[in-house]
Structures are given as C-alpha cells and as structure tokens.
Design brief:
200 residues; alpha/beta; Rossmann fold; Arc Repressor Mutant, subunit A
Length: 200
C-alpha cells in the first residue's frame, strides 16, 4: 500500500510548519513528504525540476513581494503538479486565488487532505496543455528577445539570473523550433505578442 502514496514536496520557510505537515500527512497515510525546501534559490529550483512529485505545498512567503502575484505561473516552470498555497500569515485574495487550492495553518487534518485530493482531482480532469505551448514567463522572455534585449537586461528586468534567462530561451527554441532572433521576432509578431512599433 505504501507504493500508492502520493509524493508531496513542501516549500516552506518554517521548519516547524514543515514538520507539522509532515507529521499530519504521515499519520493519515495517503500522502508522504518526499522533500522539504525552505526557499526557492537556484539550487532549490534545480532540485524541484528533478523531483517526481504529485503535489506541491508552498508558502507564498518564499517569493519576494513583486513575484507573489505570479507565484503559480512561476511554479509552472518547474513542475506540472498541482500547487497548494499554505497560508501561514494573512495573504491577499489576489495572491491566493492563483493556486490550485489553499490550506490554512488552522485547518484540521481531514480538511487539509480533502483540499489536497480536490487539487489532484482538478488537475487530473483539466485538459492537458500541448507540450509546445509557451508559459507566461517564456512569452515575456520572447517579447524581450524580439525587442532586442540582451540576456543580462532581461535578467535585470525580471529579477532572475542570467542562467534562468538562458534556460527560458532554450525552452522557447525547443517549443517553437525557431533558433534565430529574427525568426523569434516574426513568431512574436504573428502571435500578437508584440506590435511592429516595439521592434528595434
């Protein structure tokens, strides 16, 4: 029966909250914590990409203030698993509504499990996106490339590392099959991501 347990990744800055969730999930037996990250540094992002998880529970506090409004989209760059926010402090509705589900530190264990099942069921029922569809961040990077911005300028614009920009550009090339900046610019124009006046 242990083989049928769903793998859960916790991304929470509080070890006490992480251990509490781990204890609750192991007591109920349906889910098991396969990893705990306290932040989303580059090394944590690499671990996340390489982990086989069924569900992610994340405290939105791990994101800086400006990134919180796009937190779910950012997580979509690392995993296809449902992402549940754990509300350890009061968060605005606009932050929480982007997640697949929201649990509170005040929820009882059966409510947490019900919400986790709900997120998994909703993800299973959602139509699968085509593998070549660009993510929101990839579209943003594509627009910057089409406007003639350099990797460093793009990194500064979105407060991400140059390595992350390069990874996005590789993903864009893989998904579109277009290798040149000119070709990507035409792609952005044809897909109404930019208008002719914004191209240098």
């Amino acid at each position: 029966m242990a083989d049928s347990k769903k793998n859960v990744l916790l991304i929470v800055p509080s070890l006490m909250v992480a251990k509490g969730l781990d204890s609750i999930l192991s007591d109920l037996g349906e889910f098991k914590v396969c990893g705990i990250l306290s932040d989303l540094t580059r090394s944590s992002e690499t671990r996340l990409k390489n982990m086989d998880v069924d569900i992610v529970i994340i405290d939105p506090q791990v994101f800086d203030y400006d990134s919180r409004k796009n937190a779910r989209a950012l997580m979509g760059e690392f995993t296809d698993a449902p992402v549940i926010a754990i509300e350890t402090i009061a968060m605005g509705e606009e932050i929480l509504k982007q997640f697949d589900e929201v649990v509170s530190i005040y929820d009882i264990p059966t409510v947490i499990i019900r919400k986790m099942r709900s997120a998994l069921d909703a993800r299973a029922e959602a139509p699968k996106a085509e593998g070549n569809e660009l993510s929101i961040r990839e579209k943003e990077i594509l627009v910057c490339v089409a406007k003639g911005m350099l990797n460093k300028e793009i990194a500064d614009e979105y407060n991400i590392s140059i390595y992350t920009v390069i990874t996005h550009r590789k993903n864009i090339t893989r998904k579109t099959g277009i290798k040149t900046v000119a070709g990507l610019t035409v792609y952005a124009l044809l897909n109404n991501l930019i208008d002719m006046n914004s191209v240098e």
